[in-house]
Write the structure tokens for this entry.
Amino acid sequence: MGSTKRILVALDSSPDSALSLGMATTLAAQIEAQIETLFIEDVELVRLAGLPFAAEFDRLSGVESALNLAELNHTLQKRAEKMRALVQSLSKDKNIYANFKVVRGHYIAEAMQREAEILFMMLPRYLPSSQGMRSSRYSTLRKASDFTAPIYVYYSGGDESKRAITLGAELATMLGADLVVLLPSAQVAEVPALKQQLASEPGKKSVRFELVKTQISQCAMRVAQSGCTLFVLPKSSVANDSINVQALRTVHCPLVLVA
């Protein structure tokens, strides 16, 4: 991966983004990596706010109100400032290098086009800002004992998948979570070698292997049904595949894409 590892964290304003950030900074401190944080303002939401008929619906009160572009820009700016402060706080606490950048675009496209060995992201699930950053601040501070759901790794063969398994094992040890490796039946012959690889990794962890269909959509369904702490995948299994991306929206835990 090179002498200096880089971890990219794609952020929006949801509490899940803050959770991804907390995990990423903890990992960066452990593997001596640099953090690049990208706060992505949803360009489609901004365009929608500029339309005369645009409205937002408050799920708590049931009240519908006009979606105002100036107010939206102000809200996005405040959210970015709070996330920047969180990045600075966590990087200082972990003694790691981290930068922060705000861009406007499509969340997935902006994140996927950046070059980084490891990408933490949470597929967009836009939440009301009223819950916003107050709750997300605390979600990054969860203890390792809180992560009771497994870490899943999708293994499809090749170098990216091998790096994904190594990272998954590292994260499982770090967070005290079980590790589940999902692999297509075509890769079943590799299981003995993978077990040997995982046995040589430091730290104690529970590991199991499950055969799945080759489609990411089937894996996403399996992970969504059981719950997960993280879902680690080769980046190439997601890139330029809208069907896979749509399926992964159902997985309510941070994704970790490994190049």
